[in-house]
Amino acid sequence: MYKLIDGKLISTQIKDELKQKVADEHIRATLAVIQVGNDPASSVYVGNKKKACEYIGIGSAAYELPEETSEEELLKLIDELNADDDVNGILVQLPVPKHIDEKKVINRISPLKDVDGFHPESVGNLCIGQEGFVSCTPAGIIELLKRSDIDIEGKECVVIGRSNIVGKPMALLLLKNNGTVTVCHSKTRDLKTICKRADILIVAIGKPKMITSEYVKEGAVVIDVGIHRMENGKLCGDVDFDDVKDHTSAITPVPGGVGPMTIAMLMVNCVKAANR
Ligand code: GUN
Fold first, then answer.
1. What is the rounded CA–CA span in Å between residue 148 and residue 141?
2. Residues lining ligand 1, judged by CB closer than 6 Å?
3. Catalytic site includes residue 21
4. Same domain for 149 and 102
């Protein structure tokens, strides 16, 4: 019988711990959230981030900028927020419209306020094992494993996906926790054989239900980062949950697995930013 890793429950525990810490230590913090344009999915994410701030008792300042905002205007706003002592964390919701260079935006946010952990200095710190902000989704996955009593040390960990936001920092975090790590991607040959070796399989490919039981070793732990809306309106992940579940020792559902952890770890980073 597999264990269902309940991300909703664990994320609520983390937010409750933060809420207590914010109250006990009289922490004052404000997260600035910038959204350019009105992509509906981004609006939902931004709304959830504001709600989470409210829940743990910190402030949020929302900047909803029109689609036609220039790169220069956006960078100017980031400069102002970098200089504002009342703002501890700055987040620009991605993707930004095509006429804006995402890299320039990420690089402009002060590493001291980089609660997304996307700045090259944050990524570099993670890479060499120094203190810094860590990308929220992979940090949330480590927390899910730890709070489910799943040991990483010495395990064969396979990450599918090499994005800057998930795959790469995920590999670094597993390595930091003494896992043996393989990163697979679209050009990987014989993906099934490599996945079948994994004690811990982390899937961030962006293809609905691509990972079936043929990819999963008996008793493996499977973490699904994907989220897709199916034609019937229901959500699914990159893993074919019903096909895979009985072959695992533990698995995350979609929704209610990795998703809620991203926001909980963002709140961890905001509280950390306030203490810096
Ligand atoms: N778009 C999708 N995920 C994220 C995230 O974690 N942070 C930001 N800023 N944008 C995103």
1. 11
2. 91-94, 116, 136, 262
3. no
4. no
In testing the pocket of ligand 1, which one of 49, 74, 94, 115 has its CB within 8 Å of the most ligand atoms? 94
Name the β-bridge partners of 59.
Answer: 30
CB atoms within 10 A of CB 16: 13
How far does residue 159's CA lie from ligand 1's centre (Å)?
Answer: 19
Instruction: Quote the domain boundaries for residue 39.
Output: 27-112
Three-class SS of residue 12?
helix
Ligand 1 centroid to Cα of residue 45, in Å, is: 8
Both structure tokens of 254: 């979609």
Residue with tokens 């999915």: 41
Q: Is 98 a catalytic residue?
A: no
What pLDDT is stored for residue 42 in this prediction?
Answer: 96
Domain identity same for 98 and 152: no
- Are residue 100 and residue 146 in the same domain, yes or no? no
Q: pLDDT tens digit string along 31-79? A: 999 999 999 999 999 999 999 999 999 999 999 999 999 999 999 999 9
Q: How far apart are CA 98 and CA 220, in angstroms?
A: 40
Residue nearest atom 2 in ligand 1 by C-alpha distance: 94
Q: Exactly one of 6, 15, 93, 155 is catalytic; which is it?
A: 93
Confidence of residue 224 (pLDDT cuts 50, 70, 90): very high
Residue 227 lies in a domain: yes
What does pTM read for this prediction? 0.97
Q: Given the CA of residue 116, which atom of ligand 1 is nearest to it?
A: 7
